[in-house]
């Protein structure tokens, strides 16, 4: 039954996403990537998995196939069914992630604008050598994820990053975060904080504490947490959903 | 400085001085929570969820649907529907095993450690948590009592009162007069009356632009005053008039039959009169004998009452120190209390008390402002550490983001209470 449904729906996806075969402008796509994707994903040289998987070679990659990434059950199931990320499947996924895979961890409301999607796919394709045709572009060579404060020159001492967080204490401290940030990772107006890599979380919280990252509520909340407490929170939120 | 886990625990975990109550002759330890609002629903949920069945949690709450006071002003302004602000208790029972009893608590026997319900049942507890919200101080607005609440609604407990007030605003004659009798300190939600005035003005501006709003206010100043006054000027210029105590705003009587309000000798004919009387702890706190004056004094470390270490009071009913009476505060206090109660009953780790609050208010479409602070427990009270408030003259994009943030918060806190 499931198999039939998936096949049927893939046929629909293939039809509706036909537009994506006319690839857009990768330079525009890079802008779309920066504004829509780069807070969670990296692409390009030096990329690694962040909140979401890196996107080098994503076109042509089997769904949910990278090691060390926490995929949702929904995506793992699709991967097990043999689904691959192609331009049409990516297009449908980006258009409305929760429709494509109901349980996906990707907390993104979807990119409705078809032209922007095709620009984005053109850009991603430049980092996916094994697919249909290569597109000539002078896209940047280094990773472009901008979630960390690292690239803005912000860093914390290695011994702070090395603190092993006390998960149980983190769970208690986290209850204060959950007044606004939702446990299930969804949210409009208030960003998701579940499943962050611990280092990114620690860096972000210290950046608030040091008033480098702007936001009065977060500066205040982080301001009264010590290094161990931040590590505890990071450790707890990293485990959420496992 | 890679931390040794043991040292870290020793340094920050509060040690358990009190003996564990545990299964002293009656099976599982029992927690009874009275009131399923911001404080009570959160406390019941956290204790049940985190104790994973080790503690028997009963929540006593008469209403099947809890209408949040938070965002009830946005309902008055037309930004939310009544259904948007209604929540039920089904998940607390099915996801966490809370035993939800829809009844009133009418008495507490602290000697026997039982709570009596209106239906006659008697419910035993090892730890009792009261979060009954507020009741009104009789006679605080001469001429008004609860029997007048249909003519002159308070709408300070959300639900049918809020719907009534909204219907009355919609029925105001062209160019009519809305009078608010604002409460004296301390009361629930310091910016609440002023956000309400903003939302009423928003409605009237669209549907009845020549109408007037008069606020009779006993307080010389109020929460986020500069922000509200700036917003009223910008959005509703001339519609809102506030009469403070310097002009007799504290000297008010009402006549619900004649629909008149007497402000320091001047009689105003009102089309809608929203009376928000002085407040005190919900009556069950008084019946339990844990109040002193209008409120229940509590220890900041775990929200236990000064009167009885096994009775905790959360939220608006408590007298805790520096936190404003807000849903955010009640939710924050509930988590500190839940951690302490669970520790006392099962020996689980008890962590240092940390409290916080942020109150968002909407002045007009996409014009949101906020005020917030963090707090810690001292021997004496919940004491403020640090705070912030939105600034006058902020740009429109920031105000819009602030409003959107409040929507995220609403979704977060209601999930934290009811999911
Ligand atoms: C107009 C308005 C706007 C507000 N806006 C905000 C806001 O934006 N942000 C914010 O944080 N806060 C806001 N608040 C304040 C917030 O609603 C309260 O501070 C919060 O609800 C307090 O929580 P509580 O648990 O103390 O009481 P409540 O949430 O009032 O819950 C008390 C519950 O106890 C039940 N109860 C009472 N007596 C008994 C009994 N004897 N037996 C059994 N059950 C009983 C009641 O039915 C009720 O459900 C606002 C309030 C108002 C009026």
Characteristics of this structure?
heterodimer; A: 242 residues; mainly alpha; Cytochrome Bc1 Complex, Chain D, domain 2; 2 domains; 0% strand; globular; B: alpha/beta; FAD/NAD(P)-binding domain; 5-stranded parallel β-sheet; 24 strands; disordered N terminus; binds flavin-adenine dinucleotide
Structure notes:
The complex is a heterodimer of chains A (242) and B (419). Chain A is an all-alpha fold and 242 residues long. Chain A has two domains: 2-147, Cytochrome Bc1 Complex, Chain D, domain 2, CATH 1.10.760.10; 154-239, Orthogonal Bundle (Cytochrome Bc1 Complex, Chain D, domain 2), CATH 1.10.760.10. Chain A is built from eleven helices and no strands. Chain A has helices at residues 2-16, 26-37, 73-80, 87-95, 97-100, 114-125, 158-161, 167-177, 198-209, 216-223, 227-239. Chain A is globular. Chain A starts with a helix and ends with a helix. By secondary structure, chain B is of the alpha/beta class. Chain B folds into two domains: 5-135 and 282-418, FAD/NAD(P)-binding domain; 145-275, FAD/NAD(P)-binding domain. Chain B contains ten helices and 24 strands. A five-stranded parallel β-sheet of chain B has the order 5-2-1-9-20, with helices on one face. A four-stranded parallel β-sheet of chain B has the order 13-12-11-17, with helices on one face. A three-stranded antiparallel β-sheet of chain B has the order 6-7-8, with no helix packed on it. Chain B is globular and about 65 Å long. Mean pLDDT of chain B is 94; it is low at 1-23. The interface between A and B is large, with 33 and 42 residues. Flavin-adenine dinucleotide binds at residues 34-40, 60-63, 66, 69-70, 72-73, 104-105, 131-133, 156, 188-189, 192, 196, 282, 284, 314-317, 325-328, 330, 359-360 of chain B. Flavin-adenine dinucleotide binds next to helix 2, helix 3, helix 6, helix 9 and strand 22 of chain B.
